[in-house]
Design goal:
By secondary structure, the protein is mostly helical. The protein has nine helices and no strands. The N and C termini lie far apart (93 Å).
Length: 191
């Protein structure tokens, strides 16, 4: 018969359980502190959510991972999901352009406008398409983003995807009704 395993030390299971409970309590305390800080910051700075998603100083497509827990805390604190930052960009636009699907979903769940455009008419869908973020593109389309919207230069999400040869995204946009014969650009300059 195989040897029996050695008996566990007295209290070993209880110590592991206390350690897990302690970690859970610490995580809950960190979330509570983040919510409190977010409430205060959101009251004082209407663009706080935008700054959490896009801190600036880097190209938007080079954003590091966005802290989804912090974004959630800011949203729970009542931050304005429609607030616009630099050149009319919203937090949703920044998250979508950076390809941060969990943050995109959190912002959409809190009512972020999927059809919002910046000062040049560039939309969230255009940013996700140009960045090659297929899961984000699908999420935005499922939430009502328009494949037909053109910015001030005649750019569409399809053309934004084509600029970077994002064939999968081009196919998805085409299947959702994008005009594949659109060429974009300022047509008045072609006279």
């Amino acid at each position: 018969a195989p040897p029996e395993p050695a008996p566990a030390a007295p209290g070993a299971g209880a110590g592991a359980a206390r350690g897990a409970a302690g970690r859970g309590a610490a995580a809950a305390a960190a979330r509570a502190a983040a919510r409190a800080a977010a409430r205060a910051s959101s009251r004082d700075d209407p663009l706080f959510l935008y700054r959490v998603v896009y801190p600036g100083g880097v190209h938007i497509r080079a954003l590091p991972a966005i802290d989804a827990v912090r974004v959630g805390a800011v949203l729970e604190a009542g931050a304005d999901v429609q607030a616009k930052g630099e050149r009319g960009m919203t937090a949703l636009m920044a998250a979508a352009t950076g390809g941060h699907l969990p943050v995109v979903r959190a912002l959409l769940d809190k009512g972020a406008d999927v059809t919002a455009a910046d000062e040049d008419g560039f939309t969230t869908l255009m940013g996700a398409a140009q960045g090659g973020h297929l899961p984000v593109v699908r999420e935005l389309l499922d939430k009502g983003a328009s494949v037909l919207h053109k910015n001030e230069r005649g750019m569409t999400a399809f053309l934004a995807a084509a600029d970077n040869s994002n064939l999968q995204i081009m196919r998805v946009l085409k299947d959702r009704g994008a005009d594949v014969h659109e060429h974009g650009g300022d047509e008045s300059a072609q006279d």
